[in-house]
User: What shape does this take?
Amino acid sequence: MIFTLKNHISRIFTVKKCSSALLSALQCAPQACHCPPTRNFSFDPVNIFDREAKKLQRERAALREDVDLYDYIKDEVGFRLADRVFDVKKQFKVGVDLGTNRGFVSRHILADTVEHLIMCEMSPTMLSQATSTPGVRVTKTEVDEEVFSESIEDDSVDLVISNLSLHWINDLPGCFVRIMKCLRPDGVFMASLFGGETLYELRSALQLAESERKGGISPHISPFAHIRDIGGLLNRAGFTMLTIDTDEIVVGFPSMFALLWDLKGMAENNAAFNRPLHLPRDTLIAASAIYEDMYKKADGGIPATFQVIYLVAWKPSPDQPRALPRGSGQVSLKDLDKVVEGKIKKEEK
Assistant: This one.
């Protein structure tokens, strides 16, 4: 009994010595561990869209004889975006039209607002069709919007505008960072892009039809960013004084097939890498029937919703207005009506 107990005690000391030796070895050589001490997060962009396919789609759309028939949405949004540029009461020496397309924004920009406009577009045919107003000095650059900053120096641009092009960018956070770098201090970035609620009717109809026939769904409509994501990405890139709002444009079509035809004419058809290359005829007919059954208008036809996100962001500058420190206010909000009444009486006198 005593002998057995001694053996157990010697084993305990042996295990303790081995544990101490192992702990010392690990502390002296942490590189021997196969697990990193901290988790490393990768920020490499995920390639969702096939940029070459999108370039071919734009080329085919631009070469159509009736290309002007499909410009109605982009032309309207471009006009609204140009109107926001006019709201800024300053003249920009150098501006960049990122994703010019057929010049839906540049055709509304005046020489009193922008002296020199650089058009960046990856489709050579669309770039050749883009025009501007008289008096604006134009430089056309055939370049992919994802790498446009390679041909533009840092801190050299006063204005960057983009009309319905950024929703096809793979690395949207990186694109915002590159725009931030090329802007001068107090430079402004204005853009429009399709939001997450775009074509929700078409997406629902295709998903229901395909789920009924195949037992699953495929990504027939490209993913879009949501307004809550845009604000976070702009803040992360370093922009300040953000203004983000949305607008919905509802267009009526006689059928789902007319909508698909117009999307192809706009060069807004799907360009995701995982897109199915073929959609069976029976699925298309079923989706068209579901579309009409769920969303048919009282006067006939079907609606298609395009959610447009508008954003205005500024590069920080010491000359920009800043909020006063907390607690420095002299008037309480509950007395705001008295202050307004006092100012009105002074103006009347």
Notes: Confidence is low (pLDDT under 50) at residues 1-19, 25-42. Residues 131 and 232 are 34 Å apart (CA to CA). The longest strand covers residues 240-253.
